[in-house]
Design goal:
It comes from Desulfonatronum thiosulfatophilum. The protein is of the alpha/beta class. It contains twelve helices and 14 strands. A seven-stranded parallel beta sheet has the order 3-2-1-4-5-8-12, with helices on both faces. Strand 1, helix 1 and strand 2 form a beta-alpha-beta unit. Helix 4 packs parallel to helix 6 and helix 8 packs parallel to helix 10. Bound molecules: nicotinamide-adenine-dinucleotide. Nicotinamide-adenine-dinucleotide binds next to strand 2, helix 2, helix 6 and strand 5.
């Protein structure tokens, strides 16, 4: 397939580009380096520098002989979007291109406005471009498990059948996001569902949990092909942050009681999930939703694992319970269904002791580069 990856410079976008290219697909990536610019603006940086998209594509071509086409530009601009879609003519579009940080979206009015206008604006342009230039192409969009919040009932995969006063109907599962960023993801899903029913597009929305890890099959022997690895509060996901904190002896930043439970997955499984969803597409007129994670952990579970494995590796790891800067339930029921991707063929890479130890050992090689001053900023929700 000819696959267009939007957000191809990102933490997930670049590893996905290599993975799909390695699996025989023609890949084109698009990005405007927004993520890099937000990091610069906030004075934070990834654990190690990452070459730009042209450089990474050149390295990939040298190593594999496979080409990844690169397009630099803002997907909110219709002239740029239409030019890219017409030149690439995709069979499928993978949409990662959003402002992905909950704390960034809660910093102030300006970052809230950027998150809203960027995320909804890009999704709308993608929908209009698919309709105009490639109406048979599947849109695979990355949503988040955070759209559902933490309801006191089981979370289904996207849809809920309701029996009300003797009549039945099926609706999008009720969503109650806990940050502005997550709320834009809810709006994305609503927008996509509106146009799927109106124009008969085909789409898969992957409700993904927090991702951890750096190593994938494609970058194992080449550090220059590794993705961004942020460990700051704004752009680092929780387990990635804990691993870096453990390595430099910074007490693990557990918020509140630490009972916040979420569905997690290894970056290798993100790649599998999106490939499986692309290769076995939704039908025309279908919005297919999968819950994309492999196992659930509370924040305390993760912290305890990091302490235990850190000690095995000779590190001095401690935990510091901090007043929770966010507004979220710290103890709650959590039981989400996640069978759809397993049915498509997902073979999970679980968070074993070995996986965590390998991640910590890799981060230990870069420990001198860690800046403790950017680890915790305490971005408050109110
Ligand atoms: N990383 C996770 O744990 C996680 C979990 C759940 C959902 N997600 C979702 O997955 C997607 C990718 O996340 P990520 O962690 O790789 O984030 P990321 O910030 O590393 O990647 C997103 C990329 O999109 C680009 N982008 C954003 N707006 C753009 C625009 N207007 N034009 C062109 N490019 C633009 C950014 O520059 C960035 O490189 C996001 O939609 C995010 O919401 C991520």
């Amino acid at each position: 397939m000819q696959i267009l990856i939007l957000g191809g410079d990102g933490y997930l976008g670049w590893p996905t580009a290599m993975h799909l290219s390695a699996h025989g697909h023609e890949v084109a990536i698009v990005d405007n380096y927004l993520r890099r610019r937000m990091c610069l603006e906030q004075g934070v940086e990834p654990l190690f520098p990452v070459p730009d998209m042209h450089r990474r594509a050149a390295i990939w071509e040298k190593v594999t002989g496979k080409r990844i086409a690169v397009h630099v530009g803002d997907l909110r601009r219709w002239d740029f979007v239409s030019e890219v879609f017409q030149s690439v003519k995709p069979d499928a579009v993978l949409h990662y291109a959003e402002q992905p940080s909950a704390p960034y979206s809660m910093l102030d009015r300006r970052t809230a406005d950027l998150t809203l206008s960027n995320n909804i604006g890009v999704t709308a342009n993608v929908i209009f471009a698919v309709r105009e230039f490639c109406p048979d192409a599947q849109i695979v969009k990355i949503g988040t498990m955070g759209e559902y919040g933490t309801p006191n009932i089981d979370i289904e995969e996207g849809w809920l059948e309701i029996d009300h006063k003797g009549r039945k109907d099926k609706f999008l599962y009720p969503r109650q996001a806990s940050s502005l960023y997550h709320t834009t993801k809810v709006m994305d899903t609503d927008l996509l569902w509106f146009y799927v029913r109106t124009w008969g597009l085909r789409a898969t929305d992957l409700m993904q949990g927090p991702v951890y890890g750096i190593m994938t099959d494609e970058n194992e022997n080449n550090p220059e092909l590794m993705p961004f690895f942020n460990y700051d509060e704004l752009f680092g996901t929780v387990l990635n942050r804990f691993v870096v904190q453990a390595v430099v002896g910074y007490p693990l930043t557990v918020y509140g009681q630490g009972g916040q439970t979420r569905g997690y997955l290894n970056i290798k499984d993100t790649l599998q999930c999106v490939r499986l969803s692309l290769e076995q597409p939704a039908r025309k007129g279908e919005l297919r939703i999968f819950n994309q994670f492999t196992e659930t952990f509370s924040v305390n579970d993760l912290a305890d694992k990091v302490v235990r494995i850190g000690k095995d590796l000779g590190l001095h790891v401690s935990i510091r319970a901090l007043p929770n800067p966010r507004k979220e339930a710290e103890e709650h029921y959590y039981n989400p269904v996640h069978t759809g991707l397993l049915d498509l063929g997902l073979k999970p890479n679980y968070l074993t002791d070995d996986v965590l130890a390998q991640m910590m050992q890799l981060v230990m090689k870069y420990s001198a580069a860690v800046r403790p001053d950017i680890i915790f900023k305490s971005v408050k929700w109110s």
